[in-house]
Write a structure and sequence with these properties.
Blueprint: H1 21-39, H2 43-64, H3 71-81, H4 94-108, H5 116-127, E1 146-149, E2 156-160, H6 167-180, H7 192-206, H8 213-229, H9 237-243, H10 245-255, H11 262-296, H12 302-313, H13 325-332, H14 336-349, E3 352-355, E4 362-365
Antiparallel strand pairs: 1-2, 3-4
Length: 367
Amino acid sequence: MIYNWQQPDWPEFRYDVSEVEDMLFEFAELTGHVSGILKALPEAVQLEAMIDLMVAEAIKTSEIEGEYLSRQDVVSSIRNNLGLNQTPEATKDKMAQGAGELMTDARKTYADALTEEKLFQWHTMLLKEQRQINVGVWRSREEPMQVISGALGKEKVHFEAPPSSRIPDEMNRFIQWFNHTAPGGGNELKKAPVRSAVAHLYFETLHPFEDGNGRIGRVLAEKALSQTLGRPVLLSLSRTIEADKKAYYNALEQAQKSNDITSWVMYFVGVILKSQQQAMSLVDFILKKSKFFDRFNNLLNERQIKAVRRMLDAGSEGFEGGMNARKYIAITKTSKATATRDLQHLLELGAFLQEGGGRSTRYILNI
């Protein structure tokens, strides 16, 4: 197998933008629409939308790699790093802490030029608790960096990255390309989703770190989008990718066989468009959530507010299985009699809707 980086035209990527013109137009329309809606909302609602998407990105980008973070610790880390907690909240999950730190820093510094130092900082934030790998430096081991699947003895090599000896020079060229294609650069790429698609593929092909390449590569894809749009992008690429990881890995594998990457650009621009559509739905959900609290907040006791917030934290996908007495007791640390009384009150107010009956009774938010 000859990979893209082994071919004489590397890294002169070729693609036909006409294949994605319709998607680019729809993305531009949606982006403007989401931005307009947010500007009309209270600052607190805008901030909540931003945090929700950063949390989704931190959690889902790790799930793609088979790692599952504490949602509450990710939220705490992001809020701490945004300076929203007067007293920083403790985070037990150190990987969640690092993921939140990375998401926050990437958002704050989106407009800055990319540097080797910044990539090393991100790698250290993300993997500082990993003692078995070299953190904050390019990979340097002599053995091949391969993407492999299958049982021991029946492995399939999907891709092999350039040898470690080439990484310093290759990454220097990548960083120059990234900065030259940014706004004001000598080779500016004005179509944000296209630049994002190329940046992600280019970085993933190099695979410059021992671990964490996928997560940092997705941060770079969002940085490329944000720079070209001129503002921090409000979406989560990883949530869209994680919903169909097989399609993502298949598209990446095919793209690493040639430097004609039209099919990859079509795939990745589609991911970006779907991510923006999902962000639109999230903003709509947050607006409904805000109206819900405006209507009911002064009518609920502390236990009820705690339970409702836990349900709302599940997002627009909903609280799995709905609320019932057993879950309410576990969340609020109250008695069965009090839980039954609180749930009935929520139902009478119209804050809850009831589904099922008897032991199968469950409640969903009337949102």
